[in-house]
Amino acid sequence: MTDTTAPLNVLFLCTHNAGRSILAEALLNDIGQGRFHAYSAGSSPRPGELPHPLGLQVLRRAGVPVDGLRSKSWHEFAAPGAPHMDLIITVCDDAAEEVCPVWPGHPATAHWGYPDPAAGDAPDEGKLEAFRQTLHMLHRRLELLVNLPTDKLEKARLQGTARDLSHH
């Protein structure tokens, strides 16, 4: 991609849009080298829900900006006037099994499943480590995406490329 090429818009989906999808959005915007613009949303974010505080803490500790991160419904991105998505990635199994809105432009889709770092009864120290591990796993996969050659990111090939990355 040259500097004049528009960035690829990537939407990360999870049920509540409070943990994994927020981590992926922030991380790709940080490491995407201007080639990507990441967003996140959920199928059923709780009213007034904010990103998980431990997720924000892990991002801050990793030096990833968290300004502007918020939990939002995926319907926001299916509405008229929403940014056109090139790639939509579900990061939790529940969202992968749900019936998604019809996305304008028929973007490529993939499922990159990660366990919920906030699940269970572990004390905050254990959950903090789970968020750290999830961020690390996302970083490895997103680094592969960011470093793909331009031809692998062309619309016709993006579908297969994104799904191939689900095996890393």
Automatic annotation (TrEMBL):
Assigned keywords, A-Z: Arsenical resistance
Biological process annotations from GO: response to arsenic-containing substance
Domain of life of the source: Bacteria
Phosphotyrosine protein phosphatase I domain residues: 8-148
Pfam family, one: LMWPc
Entry annotated with the keyword RNA-binding: no
UniProt-listed Gene3D superfamilies: 3.40.50.2300
Coiled coil: none
SMART domains: LMWPc (SM00226)
Record-given protein name: Arsenate reductase ArsC
